[in-house]
TrEMBL record:
SUPFAM superfamilies: ALDH-like (SSF53720). Keywords: Oxidoreductase. It comes from the Bacteria. Pfam families: Aldedh. InterPro entries: Ald_DH/histidinol_DH (IPR016161), Ald_DH_C (IPR016163), Ald_DH_N (IPR016162), Aldehyde_DH_dom (IPR015590). It comes from Natronocella acetinitrilica. Its EC number is 1.2.1.81. This is Sulfoacetaldehyde dehydrogenase. The keyword Oxidoreductase applies. Residues 19-281 form the Aldehyde dehydrogenase domain. One of its GO terms (molecular function) is oxidoreductase activity, acting on the aldehyde or oxo group of donors, NAD or NADP as acceptor.
Length: 481
């Protein structure tokens, strides 16, 4: 890099620091006011800001704009996603205490008090440029925080419009507008990195580069791991039900979700029948030569081609030159694979309605294939299974390196919380230490709180050494002291 380039980058970074500092100052002033709100007032703010998106007209306009500016997904599914994710989050937040005393444990002499973290910086991806910022904003506001959003460059226009709707609702309830802000456009790396350094907490969904940058910024951060979901179909599965749910999940919003199925691992006993059910549900199985053609188009210099990311299966087939009549009505594409690793790109995340299929001898073999897939990519995120054998489910929970095991459900809907399971509604999945993350939960309002604990004295409860070590001494013939 030349000296002039270095000077230019330094000047750009200094300018970004100043721009962001102004936003943070305004956010702190707004948050200082908001911190004095009662629980009732906070809950009204949350409902008001949620209405900015739940309002059907706003949702439609934002969904149409999101698809238009990013070129990812489809309008109808984004409308559904924005509505369901926000409605589900409100269900989770309803009645949750985030102001004042939230828990008393008299037998331990403890009182827990919810406190804000302050100003939250939130990085959001282009795949979900409305649902994700809405989710993070509502969680932040529930904890009496201010939030500054850092959208992807492609999603910044729709994020600006979303915040405009939110400001209208904040005005309606008399809350400070500066509780919700966005980095100035055009959003660039310098501003995003400055945000990471200046706020009190970073929450990052999107590229692993941004996650790593947030972790190294010096600011406490919650980042998520990569997805690459494998799902087992064992010999006890209801194949028709499994095919229906997998199809619904894999085709929803053209597979923009990191929680959509990327590989199926099917045991030999039901392999042919499962493939038949998947094809009946709208999948088209590629021949070996068609698979080669698709691979050449899907990856360019080792990276996913944006011409196929989150596109309809029919569009992917057209771009690839797959011209069988079956492709004209394809809902998703099926490719059979044996290999796993960097030399076998279909074993990784595809962010498109393309589903890789592996044949396993039995459940033990399916377990091994699933583990290898996760070791290659997506470790810590999640896996799924279609089964009526609870021992198989339990083994996945006990031994597979994932934070979520989704059982007999459409994975993309269930993994981020659904109305028929108990996971928190979220679009950000912690992957634990397996995925280089510091949490393993679905990101939710609890991560946006500080907890102060008042500790009072209780009756002394000090155990005798012999009470703790007696069994150990006797077992190993050790003389206690």
């Amino acid at each position: 890099m030349s000296n002039s380039d270095q000077v230019s980058r330094t000047e750009s970074a200094v300018t970004a620091e100043g721009r962001v500092a102004g936003l943070v100052d305004r956010a702190r002033a707004a948050q200082a006011i908001y911190e004095q709100y009662t629980q009732e007032q906070v809950d009204e703010v949350v409902i008001a800001v949620a209405w900015a998106l739940i309002n059907p007209e706003h949702n439609r306009v934002l969904s149409e704009r999101a698809v238009r500016v990013t070129g990812l997904g489809n309008v109808a599914d984004k409308i559904t996603k924005n509505h369901r994710k926000t409605l589900g989050l409100l269900r989770d937040l309803q009645g949750a205490k985030t102001v004042g005393v939230i828990r008393e444990i008299p037998e331990r002499g403890l009182v827990e008090i919810a406190r804000p973290v302050g100003v939250v910086g939130a990085i959001v991806p282009s795949t979900n440029p409305v649902a994700t910022p809405a989710n993070k904003t509502l969680n932040a506001l529930k904890g009496r925080n201010a939030v500054i959003l850092a959208p992807s460059p492609k999603g910044q226009d729709v994020c600006t419009q979303l915040i405009g709707y939110m400001h209208q609702e904040l005005d309606r309830v008399g809350a400070p507008r500066d509780l919700v802000q966005q980095l100035p456009t055009p959003v660039d790396k310098e501003s995003t990195y400055a945000l990471m350094r200046q706020v009190d907490l970073m929450v990052v969904t999107g590229s692993q580069n941004n996650v790593r940058s947030a972790y190294s910024s010096g600011t406490p951060a919650f980042g998520v791991g990569a997805g690459n979901v494998p799902v087992i179909i064992d010999d006890s599965a209801d194949l028709e039900d499994a095919a229906r749910k997998i199809t619904a999940s894999k085709t929803f919003d053209n597979a923009t979700s990191c929680s959509s199925e990327n590989s199926l691992v099917i045991v030999d006993q039901v392999y042919d029948a499962a493939l038949a059910a998947l094809q009946q549900a709208g999948g088209v199985l590629l021949s070996a030569s068609e698979k080669q053609k698709l691979e050449k188009v899907m990856w360019v210099d080792g990276s996913l081609n944006r011409q196929v990311i989150a596109k309809e299966a029919t569009e992917i087939a057209r771009v690839t030159g797959l011209d069988r009549d079956a492709f004209q009505a394809a809902r998703f594409l099926l490719v059979e694979e044996q290999g796993i690793g960097k030399d076998h790109p279909f074993s990784g995340e595809k962010l498109s309605p393309v589903l890789t299929v592996y044949r396993a001898y039995d459940f033990d073999d399916a377990f091994k294939v699933t583990r290898r897939l996760l070791d290659h990519q997506g470790k810590g995120h999640s896996c799924g299974i279609h089964t009526s054998n609870d021992a198989h489910v339990r083994r996945l929970g006990l031994e597979m390196p994932v934070c979520r095991v989704i059982v007999n459900q459409a994975h993309a809907f269930a993994n981020g919380g659904n109305f028929d399971n108990g996971l928190p509604f979220s679009l950000s999945m912690g992957c634990g230490t397996w995925g280089k993350n510091n949490f393993s939960d679905n990101l939710n309002y609890r991560q946006y709180l500080n907890i102060t604990r008042i500790a009072r004295t209780i009756p002394v409860n000090e155990p005798a050494t012999a009470d703790l070590f007696g069994d150990y001494w006797r077992k190993h013939d050790i003389a206690g002291s």
